[in-house]
Amino acid sequence: MPTVVSVNVGLPRLVGFETTSLPMTGIEKRPVDGRVRITTYGVEGNGCGDTVNHGDAFMRVYAYSVEDYRWWETELGATLPPGHFAEQLTTEGIDLNAALVGETWRVGTAVLQIAHVRTPCLTFKGWMGHTGHDNTAWVRRFALAGRPGPYFRVLEEGSVAAGDPIVVLERPDHDVTVATMFRALLVEPRLLPRLLAVDGLKGWVRERAEAAVARSDPS
Fold it and tell me: What percent of the chain lies above the pLDDT cut of 70?
């Protein structure tokens, strides 16, 4: 059964490495023991430094899998601990990138819905360099790897702990996966029109998809 391997939190702090906008970031996260509340605003004990680009209702909880970490460990030649990519939930036993945007999951006692995808930024690049990894062209490298992991909105508050099961409750009637959305937004714009099959997209994502349709309309 798919499970939560760890719950990871961190609060914003001033850093000396390159960031997207502010010198404050909550990208550093560490596993915590025991049960942790997931509220409408995200995982308790966690904070976001850049609230303009992160942390809205579409991006309350981020997940990354140990399977994808193992792939990156081979690529980087180094061990990556849970939380290193700034996810609040480290998972095992479920392909996060093959999941459909809009899937509803019960994680612990909370109900979450896949709402968006992680896109790499300069803060992520700066963090990788700060922690001793080669971050040369990291944003592009992460994009081409196609292993972004999903962001969730919170449908029902609850609590979660390491070892809790992940249960898929509902799947939407379309074929837009997390990986498809990621490729459409970052490396394959020809896929953008497919995103319009998803209900409840972030505003800028829908606008970009609609613009792609308009450009392709011969009339």
Answer: 97
Whether 11 has a pLDDT exceeding 80, the answer reads: yes
The torsion region of residue 47 among left (phi > 0), alpha (psi -120 to 50) and beta comes to beta
Residue 168 has what pLDDT?
Answer: 98
Confidence (pLDDT) at 65: 98
Q: Which pTM does this prediction carry? A: 0.94
The DSSP secondary structure of 22-85, one letter per residue, reads -SEE----EEE-S-EEEETTEETT---S-TTTS-STT-SEEEEEHHHHHHHHHHHTS---TTTT
Evaluate whether 65 touches 40 at the Cβ level (below 8 Å).
no
Interacting residues of 46 by C-beta distance below 8 A, sequence separation 6+: 8, 9, 10, 11, 26, 29, 88
Find tokens 């997207």 and name the residue. 20
